[in-house]
Amino acid sequence: MKGKDISDRATPGEGIGAQPGEARxxxxxxxxxxxxLKLSVGAILLAGLVFAGGFGLFATHISGMSTPDDPExxxxxxxxxxxxxxxxxxxxxxxxxxxxxxxxxxxxxxxDLGDLQAATGGDKKLFSCCVDIDHAALDTIGxxxxxxxxxSSHAYxxxxxxxxxxHMPRSLLEMRRYLxxxxxxxxxxVNHRLDGGGWMTKPAALRVLFTEYTKYIAALARGVMPLRxxxxxxxxxxAQATAGG
Length: 245
Hints:
The structure is a single chain. It contains 8 helices and 5 strands; from the N terminus they run αβαβααβαβαβαα. By secondary structure, the chain is an alpha/beta fold. A 5-stranded parallel β-sheet has the order 3-2-1-4-5, with helices on both faces. The termini are far apart. The chain has a domain at 76-242: Rossmann fold (3-Layer(aba) Sandwich), CATH 3.40.50. Helices cover 47% and strands 11% of the residues.
């Protein structure tokens, strides 16, 4: 009696040497792949919703900020460059006695105290005695590093921080990492009111807020990393050192 060759009875995908449970036509593999794909898509959608929701909260927080009418007094004032209105506001605070000394952080290397005094129309005597400038900082992290050196060298414990409203959350985040022992008082400069959801209808405002939000998220992520040392000597230009120039 003739028997059929064993190969004639082999089911496709189950030839000689096939292991028990091995996939037939990729069906077992697909059974694992589909749930994993759904999980990945779900995770991406959830992350997108969290990101969008966070942006909405961030933008609403920024749009609700206002410039204090009568801020509390502090030991000193720090202003981060990036707009003329910021420096004007900081100089006004110094002139009104809200702080004993002012640091302008992130000044272009080609600019000196005389240039800033002329640009702001500030009092020459005030600039000569009480305004320092920092040429080293190139970004917000640099602002925080150089400001920490300046605050430490003067032993200040209470500082007013001046910058634009959209820049304030990230600035406070970076500053507090380096100035953990100082009390920072935010003084947001508001150039355009965006409350009441006004930011939603202004493309330029949306672009600025979205860019700043992504930078803020990156700053939060950096919070788990060790700080760079700020033990180097203070690099600011001291007002008293240039008073006679």
